[in-house]
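From the methods appendix. Each design record in this collection lists the tokenized structure first, followed by the designed amino acid sequence. Records were kept in a plain field format so they could be parsed without special tools. The example shown here is representative of the layout used throughout.

RECORD:
FOLD TOKENS (70 positions):
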């Protein structure tokens, strides 16, 4: 299915936000969900809800990692 991830169109076969995160993490070298926030269609999701929140064709997903620096 086609999703928009961080503004970029991508084809993914994930059924849930958690599965989508795992696919993105594998490709992006993210080892842990620690410090990661995900918004689905403009709504920030709690980490505990990732596994039960479905994704659908055309959804907009923002995956943001907290980073230190100045």
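DESIGN:
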């Amino acid at each position: 299915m086609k999703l928009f991830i961080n503004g970029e169109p991508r084809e993914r076969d994930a059924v849930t936000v958690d599965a989508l995160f795992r696919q993105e993490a594998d490709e992006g070298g993210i080892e842990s969900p620690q410090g990661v926030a995900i918004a689905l269609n403009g709504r920030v999701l709690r980490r505990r809800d990732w596994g039960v929140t479905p994704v659908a064709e055309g959804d907009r997903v923002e995956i943001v990692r907290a980073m230190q620096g100045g």
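APPENDIX NOTE: The chain is about 15% helix and 30% strand.
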